[in-house]
Design goal:
alpha+beta; Ribosomal Protein S8, Chain: A, domain 1; 5-stranded mixed beta sheet; 7 helices
Length: about 180
């Protein structure tokens, strides 16, 4: 400690500090200029890819393999839309941007949670989501009641353009891929 600091009472921290730094030389500039952070990047290419995929899906020709593709898995497509849209959704061409897990919830809680989730996704401009409803293995007679309810709820929502069963690595018959309308 410096000599001047020993004469200052220990309980006066401000005076003690001034005494310790009395012979310090101030820096030439006491202001530091920080550049503002750069703006967040706009994902123009992914937005363009999404628009191109939707345009091709809605207006592209129906190929022979589209007519042959099918199956017993659940699927819904809003009338007037190209089957290509459903095919692209089924094949994972759309990137899942958010998901909700409903299994374990009761009927009313699941319906409320799904409605709030869809509203939030629309506000955020997210188009492709995954809804996990479970396979119904814990239900009586192993019948997936929530699975059937979720499909019905989604078909009644005007903002839902299409849905189909998820791929096995995303939940298989215990989940759905859902495509929502574009923000207005």
């Amino acid at each position: 400690m410096k000599d001047g600091a020993s004469a200052v009472p220990a309980n006066d921290e401000s005076a003690l500090f001034r005494a310790v730094v009395a012979d310090a030389t101030p820096l030439a500039s006491d202001r530091i200029h920080h550049e503002p952070p750069p703006p967040l990047p706009i994902p123009r290419q992914s937005q363009a890819d999404d628009r191109a995929a939707l345009d091709e899906t809605l207006h592209g020709p129906i190929q022979l393999e589209d007519r042959l593709e099918g199956g017993d898995e659940p699927a819904f497509l809003r009338p007037g839309l190209s089957r290509q849209l459903l095919k692209d959704l089924r094949r994972g061409r759309w990137v899942v941007q958010a998901q909700i897990d409903l299994h374990g919830l009761g009927r009313d809680a699941a319906r409320t949670a799904l409605g709030e989730f869809l509203g939030e996704r629309l506000r955020k401009g997210q188009r492709c989501i995954r809804v996990i409803h479970g396979k119904g293995l814990g239900s009586p007679n192993r019948m997936g009641i929530l699975r059937q309810l979720v499909r019905g709820w989604l078909m009644r929502r005007t903002e839902v353009l299409a849905f189909c069963q998820a791929q096995p690595h995303d939940g298989g018959d215990g989940a759905l891929y859902v495509l929502l309308q574009a923000p207005r």
